[in-house]
Structure formats: structure tokens, C-alpha cells
Specification:
This protein is an alpha+beta fold. The chain has two domains: 112 residues, no CATH class; 80 residues, no CATH class. The chain is 31% helix and 16% strand. It is built from four helices and seven strands, in the order ααβββββββαα. A four-stranded antiparallel beta sheet has the order 1-7-3-4, with no helix packed on it. Strands 2-6-5 form a three-stranded antiparallel beta sheet, with no helix packed on it. 22% of the residues are buried.
Length: 211
């Protein structure tokens, strides 16, 4: 698995600043953390936890990103998601065993009190890097994601300069020929984001469970 230091060096080389003179460590850490979130639709972290019988509302795990499935442990039955639509039902009077909905924020609510333990299969966020990760910290995302993460991190790291350039407008000039860029840093960031999308689309997107 790749380390934070290895990815950081790839990002700085992409930015044309191998020594990192123009990018402080906090910005690169933020950029890599943002990249770990950006890859989730293609390469999420899968996780599982148990919901103990006896309640209708359960707090979701701290690393929760999205529900994959809720399964009754004793039978293996997959519990359906409640559909809020005219003619549908939700609450203690439904005819089925149970259903669930992600509501309120940070919680999973069931129509009926759980009579036994359930399993929650979910997508999780990759473990955050922390404020001061060591260079040799092993990153959790798979190696196949590193090129995409490098593109996204580089685009993120360009944002402060692109915003400052837009504010001072030093490239806001007109010439008689050609097509000058008013904000080349912004265009570079957008180009890197396009490379990120192209790279990640080469990989199979995570197939979400039917709910």
C-alpha cells in the first residue's frame, strides 16, 4: 500500500514543485483528505456493524457514508428501505416485518422495534489522516486509486492560488490575437479534475446494493 509521503511527492511533482516550496504541509494534508472522499463512488470502504434488539432509532457509525443493506441476523432477510411516496406506508402498522429510513440526520429509524439483532452493511469513509500524519503513514485506499487521488489532490492544492489570481485579476488582459487565459491556474485545476474523472472512470464503479 502507498504511504502518505509517496502520494505527497507525486502531488508535488504534478504541481511542478518537487520540493514543496510553494505548498505548505497543511494544504497537502487537506488535499489528500479531500481526495479520499472524492474516490468513494468508485472505491468506497466497506464495513459492517450490529444493531442490538429493542429500539427503533440507532445512531449511525462515525465513519458512515451510505447504507448498503440491513439484514435480520436470525433469518438473513434483507430489510427494505421505506419509500416515502403516496400510497406507501411507514410505521408500526406496516404489513412487512420491518423497514428503515435514514432519518433524522446521523440516525437509522425503523418502523418497528427490532425483535432481534440486525446487521448494518454500510459504506464508510477512509480513515482520516489527522493533522500531522507521518510520511510513512500507510494510506487505506487501494493502490489502484493513487493516480486518481494524485490528480484530485493537485487540483485541490491549486485552489488557493486560483482564488487569489481571480481576486487580483493579474491575467485580465486583452491582446489582438490568440486566446489568452484570464485565470490559467483555474484552468489547470479544472484540467486536473478532468484527469481525475477520466482516471477513476477507467475503474469499475462500486455497485450499490438494491434497496
Amino acid at each position: 500500500m502507498a504511504t502518505f509521503g509517496e502520494l505527497k511527492n507525486r502531488v508535488l511533482r504534478l504541481l511542478g514543485d518537487p520540493e514543496g516550496a510553494g505548498y505548505d504541509d497543511a494544504l497537502i494534508i487537506d488535499a489528500v483528505q479531500a481526495a479520499q472522499l472524492a474516490i468513494l463512488p468508485w472505491m468506497p470502504k466497506t464495513a459492517k456493524t450490529s444493531l442490538t434488539a429493542g429500539d427503533t432509532v440507532y445512531a449511525l457509525p462515525d465513519d458512515f457514508y451510505a447504507v448498503e443493506a440491513v439484514v435480520i441476523q436470525s433469518t438473513g432477510e434483507i430489510v427494505p428501505q421505506a419509500m416515502f411516496a403516496p400510497g406507501s406506508f411507514h410505521g408500526a402498522n406496516i404489513s412487512g416485518n420491518n423497514d428503515w429510513i435514514e432519518y433524522p440526520a446521523g440516525s437509522l429509524s425503523f418502523s418497528k422495534e427490532l425483535p432481534g439483532d440486525y446487521d448494518l452493511y454500510y459504506l464508510a469513509v477512509w480513515t482520516p489522516l489527522g493533522d500531522t500524519p507521518d510520511e510513512d503513514l500507510t494510506l487505506e485506499p487501494p493502490n489502484a486509486s493513487m493516480t486518481g487521488m494524485a490528480f484530485y489532490s493537485a487540483a485541490y492544492a491549486l485552489q488557493p492560488q486560483a482564488v487569489n489570481t481571480a481576486e487580483v485579476r493579474q491575467f485580465n488582459t486583452r491582446v489582438d490575437s490568440g486566446n489568452p487565459e484570464h485565470n490559467p491556474l483555474q484552468d489547470a485545476a479544472l484540467y486536473l479534475l478532468k484527469l481525475f474523472q477520466n482516471e477513476m472512470n477507467r475503474h469499475p464503479k462500486h455497485q450499490r446494493a438494491q434497496r
